[in-house]
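Assemble and predict.
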Amino acid sequence: MERHGRHFQDELDELKGRLLEMGGLAEERLRLAVRSVVDRDNALVERVLVGDAAINQLHIEIDDRCFKLLALHQPMAVDLRAIVAAVKINTDLERVGDLAVNIAEAVRRYLRHPAVKELIDIPKMAELAQVMLRDALDAFVRRDVDLAQQVLAQDDDLDSLKTQVFRELLTYMLRDASTIEPSLDLILISRHLERIGDHATNVAEDVIFMVSAKDVRHQ
Amino acid sequence: MERHGRHFQDELDELKGRLLEMGGLAEERLRLAVRSVVDRDNALVERVLVGDAAINQLHIEIDDRCFKLLALHQPMAVDLRAIVAAVKINTDLERVGDLAVNIAEAVRRYLRHPAVKELIDIPKMAELAQVMLRDALDAFVRRDVDLAQQVLAQDDDLDSLKTQVFRELLTYMLRDASTIEPSLDLILISRHLERIGDHATNVAEDVIFMVSAKDVRHQ
């Protein structure tokens, strides 16, 4: 740490703060998108769809900060891995924002039909995905490998919920053709939520690599 | 170029070669996965599913090369951007390999049912996704912004095909409930192909940023 001095560490802390901010924005958009389908709230759908200008701006700013840190400070070892991890995490968070838009698009179509069923597993999936995302980012900031490992473990639960949603909706579709279109959108929503969990998993893997220089992918 | 000398440029060329190799492997797996559904070939499905050990190994090796280049050579400007782009492209290509597995999983389920229809648009989507991927990687190696722009333009065609596939299959499902399950898998396959196009788009955007230091995302 002494090697780069105060200025570098301040910049790195600033970078982490921005990533947390971006994570918070992505999480908030996910929360709104899922609430829009649970509450059948078209106005909320539109709020998610108007765009994520703040996330997009942060995405570019964070990338830029990473480049400057790499170019001006020539970090080594864990600091270098932290900045490359930040580049990757930045991409993952931006995709989470995009997926919130994809969810809102599916909700918009879904709300044109009567409700297929009371939604239980989809809000559960969203809750789990949010927890994973938050934990993964906390693990990054605190360089906490145990917390990152917990995130990896939770991904299986999300996967089971997705399979459950699929099976249940399939029975509805087979029984009553009028549920086919709206069920398709619920299935898509559950897939988008699963992908948000995948992004949280990516972040957790980056944290483990950053801290331990150990590659846990592909094991 | 003179700044880092011969050795650095050799290493950078080696890195590019590895990325092309990885792109070739990912493309080959995509090709096999799509052929397995067109030819209804279960043996081919299993070949894709046994795993992508070669891709996973390259994924780790390429990441490692990028870290070493960043740590040992402290590259600046376009070289720095090229290496950070390589880290990102590496991630995108690995995801393409995963998506080939996802396609094969859907094909395995699909082949338990009689064919819903002759497949025309799905092979077309696969062909387009492959071209986009190849062009994006060529653009990276040649630092060719025009070619990268072409890739971005093709993404709309892929999107239209996906919508067409969805609409057509929906009419089948509404008409005949026995087509619901297999149609769902075809819809998933088309979504996976669309995502492969998204990864090609990411690569193209990285190329444009690498060459021109201009961020074309979020415009």
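The longest helix of chain A spans residues 5-38.
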